[in-house]
Design a protein that fits this description.
The protein has helices at residues 2-11, 17-26, 114-126; strands spanning 30-39, 42-51, 55-62, 68-72, 77-81, 92-94, 128-138, 141-150, 161-167, 173-179, 185-196. The chain has an 11-stranded antiparallel sheet, covered by helices on one side. A hairpin with a 5-residue loop joins β9 (161-167) and β10 (173-179). It has 3 helices and 11 strands; from the N terminus they run ααββββββαβββββ. The model is unreliable at 1-11 (pLDDT under 50). The protein has 207 residues and is of the alpha+beta class. The protein has a single domain, classed as Lipoprotein localisation LolA/LolB/LppX (outer membrane lipoprotein receptor (LolB), chain A, Clam), CATH 2.50.20.
Amino acid sequence: MLPELLMVVALGLEPDPLSAALSRFERVNAYQLTVRSEGRRGEEIIRYAYRRPGFIRMDMVTPYSGAVLIYSPETRRVRLWPFGSPERRVGLSLSPLNPLVRSARGHRVDESDVGTLLRNVQRLQQQGELHHLGGAVVDGRRSHHLVVQGEEGHRVGEVARYELWLDEETLFPLKVISSDRLGSVIERVWLEEIVIDPDLPESFFSP
């Protein structure tokens, strides 16, 4: 325990980095990034945008190139344009539970933001252990490398272990690896080209 505490002090990291990261996120009004994920069902690349209180836009790069999804917390519906160009076509209006707007790994559009990710990791930590593995560099950015391992029998969904890298300056996640109770990797996710608090007009989420 003492060596880990000394490492926390040396890294300038909060004693509870997940709470600190979530607190930082709660002060973010909007963000844009590219999500690149690899899992058991292949690769997904998405241009992703978020604006409070929960507007989400996903522009698919792969595997469904050109598709656009927009979620509104006001209607609690997902608008889907399978072939792009939402400004010129009428989109489908679907529930977030509809399989057409869930990822290959079952993720819901309305539960896809960074805040949801951090809260899920926190839930695992509540019946598990957090380990600080020191500093690391992800895509040229200095980060804190953490692992959260759930106690035996405790999982969040099918996830029993999270390994994540938080940006040293912003505590924003840069990379996340989730594993099941057998230690097999479920998904690897990279958050790239991150822009915090960009100017995202209302029309961007309601074409």
